[in-house]
């Protein structure tokens, strides 16, 4: 029997009822962190749009940047829901299946968003309990424990799916996994001027490099990107020149009215 259990955990000496309460409480704990992560992502995209217009790479838009970015996020969320495609940056749907076993609780997370999974695993009393026999045993896990994991997962799952053998709880569903944000909640996460200059300088340098070199790369865009990346990383003078250039163009501070 082949066993592959990813994103799995164990909670020792807990009842199913108490774990259910923990999962309900986790939703309240996670929501502010989820909103913060989304706000940072939106702030970054808004910044790119505003600075791109200032640099002449984009035309002034009829919609405010916040509205435009929010519509793009909603479109991405809709595609996740309708196509089941992975988009971890904005896919916050989170389900957990749990399985009582000899006084302990085994569990499996179903979530694409790594920060959310990490937050769940960081809680007191929750320990990693993944297992797969398709790769070698991790060095830090003793052989006896690794074998015990296999036995435990075979015992609770057998040949069935987690949904058939365990109890499932939804932390964030497809209907409530994208928190609504106001412009005022995004503004504090707009990157500072120095960071914006570094981003913009790299964009300017890449645009110039691409235009000057694409003809000689015979359609091998990835090779061109990698070559530019090495040059940008190693050429201190190039970075300094481009940062100085864009710093004279970009608005020093992005304010609420700009969003």
As an assembly, this protein is single chain
Strand order of the largest sheet: 5-2-4-3-7
Domain module count: 2
Q: What is the N-to-C succession of helices and strands? A: EEHHEEHEEHHEHHHH
Total count of strands: 7
Poorly predicted regions = none
Distance between the termini: 56 Å
**What is the SS-derived class?**
alpha+beta
Shape: elongated
Binned strand content: 5-15%
Largest sheet, in brief, is: 5 strands, antiparallel
**C-alpha Rg, in Å?**
24 Å
Share of residues in helices: 40-55%
Instruction: Give average pLDDT, whole number.
Output: 88
| DSSP helical segment count | 9
Describe the protein's architecture and organization:
- This protein has 259 residues and is α+β, with helices and mostly antiparallel strands.
- It has 2 domains: 169 residues, no CATH class; 68 residues, no CATH class.
- It is 53% helix and 13% strand.
- It has a 5-stranded antiparallel β-sheet, sandwiched between helices. It has a two-stranded antiparallel ribbon with strand order 1-6.
- It starts with a strand and ends in a 12-residue tail after the last helix.
- The relative contact order is 0.17.
Considering the chains and any ligands shown, give keywords for the structure:
259 residues; alpha+beta; five-stranded antiparallel sheet; two-stranded antiparallel sheet
Task: Map the helices and strands.
Blueprint: E1 4-5, E2 8-11, H1 16-55, H2 65-83, E3 94-101, E4 104-111, H3 114-121, E5 126-128, E6 131-132, H4 143-157, H5 162-165, E7 167-172, H6 183-186, H7 193-213, H8 221-234, H9 236-247
Helix pairs in contact: 1-2, 1-3, 1-7, 7-8, 7-9
